[in-house]
Amino acid sequence: MTMIAFKMKLKPGAKEEYAKRHQALWPEVKALLKARGVSNYSIFYDAETDILFAVQEVEKTISAYNTAHEAILHTWWNYMADIMDVNADNSPVIVNLEQVFHLD
C-alpha cells in the first residue's frame, strides 16, 4: 500500500454542506474508489483556511482523482462544484503533498 495526501479548498461557509454530502457519499462513488484500490481514506478540515487535507492508502500509485474518465466522478464533481474550488471540468483543484515524515 502507498499512502498519498493532497489538499483541496472549500468556499467560505461550506464546511457543513461538504460534511453532509460526504456522510451520504453515493454508493457508486464509494464502490469505484474501492475498486480502484483506495482505502483508509480520510479528509480533515482546517477552519482557519477552509483547506481540506486528504489522506488515502492506495494499492497502486493511483488516487481517487486519477480516474477522471469515470462518468460517476464527473457527476459527483458537478454536484460538489458549488462549494469547492474546481477546475474547468469541475474536478476539485488538488495540490498533491509530499510526505516528509512518517512514524509507524
UniProtKB/TrEMBL annotation:
<dbReference type="Pfam" id="PF05336">
    <property type="entry name" value="rhaM"/>
</dbReference>
<keyword id="KW-0963">Cytoplasm</keyword>
<keyword id="KW-0119">Carbohydrate metabolism</keyword>
<dbReference type="InterPro" id="IPR013448">
    <property type="entry name" value="L-rhamnose_mutarotase"/>
</dbReference>
<protein>
    <recommendedName>
        <fullName>L-rhamnose mutarotase</fullName>
        <ecNumber>5.1.3.32</ecNumber>
    </recommendedName>
</protein>
<keyword id="KW-0413">Isomerase</keyword>
<dbReference type="InterPro" id="IPR011008">
    <property type="entry name" value="Dimeric_a/b-barrel"/>
</dbReference>
<keyword id="KW-0684">Rhamnose metabolism</keyword>
<dbReference type="InterPro" id="IPR008000">
    <property type="entry name" value="Rham/fucose_mutarotase"/>
</dbReference>
